[in-house]
Design goal:
The structure holds 2 protein chains of 2 kinds. Chain A has 11 helices and 10 strands. Chain A is of the alpha+beta class. Chain A folds into 3 domains: 114 residues, Butyryl-Coa Dehydrogenase, subunit A, domain 1 (Orthogonal Bundle); 107 residues, Butyryl-CoA Dehydrogenase, subunit A, domain 2 (Beta Barrel); 149 residues, Butyryl-CoA Dehydrogenase, subunit A, domain 3 (Up-down Bundle), CATH 1.20.140. Chain A has a 4-stranded mixed beta sheet, with helices on one face. A 4-stranded antiparallel beta sheet of chain A has the order 2-3-7-6, with no helix packed on it. In chain A, strand 2 and strand 3 form a beta hairpin. In chain A, helix 7 runs antiparallel to helix 10 and helix 8 packs antiparallel against helix 9. Chain A is globular, with a radius of gyration of 21 Å. Chain A starts with a helix and ends with a helix. Chain B is of the alpha/beta class. Chain B has one domain: HUPs (Rossmann fold), CATH 3.40.50.620. Chain B has 7 helices and 11 strands. Classes of the chains: A alpha+beta, B alpha/beta. Chains A and B meet through helix 1 of A and helix 2 and helix 5 of B. The structure holds flavin-adenine dinucleotide. The site of flavin-adenine dinucleotide has 20 residues of chain A, from strand 1, strand 3 and helix 11.
């Protein structure tokens, strides 16, 4: 049985890699430079199940486990960080909360089109005055008969420019502090829904990250996910899963940087030999490979715990912290190995370097992760 | 006319270090030349109805994995012929074994093969199996179309296209460039590996004795295998861009690389 699982993962990785190398790698540079969202490829990815990796088959998904999910996200990110971000956020923090906290009715309504990639999901927590401190959000959703009237100003929303189904974190009870936060699903075609200009980002440029503003949006009360006041609980549960995906994304970007560096080091000659013969380069390559492997194992551990229904929050935070910092270090070394050409857009490593940088910030900054991890560890002994 | 199609596929070895090849699953991959064959069969089924059965001879894990890929692409059934006595089979013994399985399977109209494999490159197995089964055979097939009297088959040669007519049953090898194989969906992979649909058969099941296959059943024996590295030389072509491209074209033509 174990062998069969191993075989499945191997075939999965190989086939996803095949697809990404044929369809995504050739356009990755262009969509980064032009900051354009590649609809054509996204449509294909949708048909292949990349937007419903863990959703059950009866709701249009592939019904895979978390481990498979991390393999798919790693491989997409190895080709293009921005599409890794798009699929990671869509699968984990947009679709997963609907599956985990939605009623049967809500699942039937939203999950199939999301799982098939016909609609794109977004997770709208951050606001101009609320980043790391999610409880600081100011959006409101005030009950009016069978509707909520939602007013929200959401910032830095991944997929924001294209998302149809948006999870809005908002205050249904402005007096109740942390307990007054709820999640309301708002669809793009709702009157009063407006997307701001796309952010002109340093990396992940092919992802249409944008602000979303809701002005007096009347949303049926049936769009409330779970119950009023459950917002932070849903958010934290989603981010626990999401972080495994971001960690896998960071591993994928780092892996691409390592492979590019190995090719370059073998082919570039200085002082009469390939630079790969210089010990200084070898040591960088050794550290890069070792840290990537360690990150991948942390991701694997978190994913396996989740698949076994064991607590995985701490492990997911550790995987995210370590893998994202690894990704920054590895892509930095990749630029160094490429010398001056690494700083040029003629080679892909400068893109990896830019893409890797944000993984240490979104879905919880490294600082917040250290606080969370420390809290757990300090209680443990 | 519905077509019941058997597609023979192989789990190929990615790296070989000597004569004794290790067929471990982590070092194996479904022969890339078999992917267009599976695609051809699936397209025919979609158009005409019928069924597609993938058949492979090989070790348990690597063979089952290749068959699961075929199932993930959409074939209906998967059969693995697996037996210790098959180890060391050359292409003749392989064809003997595949022919015996095919003879045991349900009625079929077409048996399809890849033109060759990426790890041995003989191109023998398709034509040999066809001969052993006494089936009409066409190689390098580019397209298959149904007509009143049977099937119209187009076959690619370097710069020519031959058109044939056959009436099934028949055996064909499919040209690797004839069709772009589909991408395998995550749903396909999940289902193929979760549902145990690969049927395993042994030599006894197909009525062959161990002597008919393996090394004793083989007509040839590999004595040695070693890597040959070709010397690479670097020539500089000079002149204007036009002159350089003309000279490059001439040089490639002389070497027979382009026609
Ligand atoms: C490309 C991109 C995509 C994004 N996608 C989404 C999305 O889809 N949905 C969404 O809701 N948000 C998204 N974000 C927003 C992202 O999650 C936030 O930027 C992040 O949570 C940090 O919040 P902030 O930017 O407000 O920084 P702040 O919270 O203001 O942090 C600034 C600095 O202070 C530190 N800091 C804050 N509090 C503490 C503390 N208590 N102790 C120590 N240090 C502290 C931080 O670690 C950081 O270094 C995205 C951002 C980007 C750039």
């Amino acid at each position: 049985m174990d062998n069969k699982i191993t075989e499945k993962k191997r075939v999965l990785r190989r086939r996803v890699r095949d697809f990404c190398e044929r369809e995504i790698v050739p356009i990755a540079k262009e969509i980064d430079q032009e900051a354009s969202f590649p609809w054509e490829v996204v449509d294909k990815m949708g048909k292949l199940g990349y937007f419903g990796i863990q959703a059950p088959p009866e709701l249009g998904g592939a019904g895979m486990d978390t481990l498979s999910y991390t393999i798919v996200i790693e491989e997409i990110s190895r080709a293009c960080g921005a599409l890794g971000l798009c699929t990671s956020v869509h699968n984990s923090v947009a679709l997963f909360p609907i599956l985990a906290f939605g009623s049967d009715e809500q699942k039937k309504r939203w999950a199939p089109s999301l799982a098939r990639g016909e609609k794109i999901g977004a997770f709208c927590l951050t606001e101009p005055n609320a980043g790391s401190d999610a409880s600081g959000i100011e959006s409101t959703a005030i009950r009016d008969g069978d509707h909520y009237v939602v007013n929200a100003n959401k910032a830095l929303v991944t997929n924001g420019g294209v998302a149809d189904t948006c999870l809005i974190f908002t205050r249904t009870d402005p007096e109740a502090g942390r307990r007054g936060i709820s999640v309301i699903v708002v669809e793009r075609d709702t009157t009063g829904f407006k997307t701001g200009d796309l952010e002109n980002l340093m990396g992940m440029r092919a992802n249409p990250v944008a602000s979303i503003r809701l002005t007096d949006c009347r949303v049926p009360k049936e769009n409330l996910l779970s119950k009023e006041g459950m917002g932070l609980k849903i958010g934290l549960a989603a981010l626990d899963v999401g972080r495994i995906g971001i960690a896998a994304q960071a591993v994928g970007i780092a892996q691409a940087a390592l492979e590019a560096s190995v090719h370059y080091a073998n082919q570039r000659h200085q002082f009469g030999v390939p630079i790969a013969n210089h010990q200084a380069i070898q040591f960088m390559i050794a550290d890069m490979a070792t840290e990537i492997e360690a990150s991948r194992l942390l991701v694997l551990q978190a994913a396996k715990l989740r698949d076994r229904n064991k607590p995985f929050s701490q492990e997911s935070a550790m995987a995210k912290l370590f893998a994202t910092e690894t990704s920054s270090r590895v892509t930095d070394k990749a630029v160094q190995i490429h010398g001056g050409y690494g700083y040029s857009k003629s080679y892909p490593v400068e893109r990896y370097y830019r893409d890797a940088r944000i993984t240490r910030i979104y879905e919880g900054t490294a600082e917040i992760h250290r606080m969370v991890i420390a809290k757990g560890v300090l209680q443990q002994y | 006319m519905k077509l019941n199609i058997i597609v023979c596929i192989k789990s190929t070895v990615l790296h070989a270090s000597g004569v004794n090849i290790i067929r471990a699953p982590e070092l194996s991959e479904l022969n890339p030349f078999d992917l267009p064959v599976l695609e051809t069969a699936l397209l025919l089924k979609k158009k005409l109805g019928g069924s597609v059965t993938a058949l492979s001879m090989g070790p348990q894990e690597a063979g089952a994995s290749a068959l699961c890929e075929a199932l993930a692409m959409g074939v209906d059934k998967a059969v693995l012929l697996c037996d210790k006595a098959l180890a060391g089979s050359d292409t003749l013994a392989t064809s003997t074994a595949l022919g015996a399985v095919i003879a045991k399977l349900d009625q079929f109209d077409l048996v399809l093969f890849g033109t060759r494999t990426c790890d041995s490159d003989t191109g023998h197995v398709g034509p040999q199996t066809a001969t052993l089964l006494d089936l009409p055979f066409i190689s390098n097939v580019n397209s298959i179309e149904q007509i009143d009297t049977g099937l119209r088959i187009e076959r690619m040669l370097d710069e020519y296209m031959e058109t044939y007519e056959i009436s099934p049953p028949a055996a064909l090898t499919i040209h690797p460039n004839s069709v772009q194989p589909r991408d395998i969906s995550l749903m396909g992979i999940q289902e193929a590996f979760e549902k145990d649909k690969v049927k395993t058969m042994s030599l006894a099941d197909i009525g062959l004795s161990p002597e008919q296959v393996g090394e004793t059943g083989s007509g040839t024996k590999v004595l040695s295998m070693k890597q040959v590295s070709r010397k690479r030389i670097c020539d500089f072509i000079e002149g204007t861009v036009e002159q350089q491209s003309d000279e490059l074209l001439e040089c490639l033509k002389k070497k027979g690389i382009i026609g």
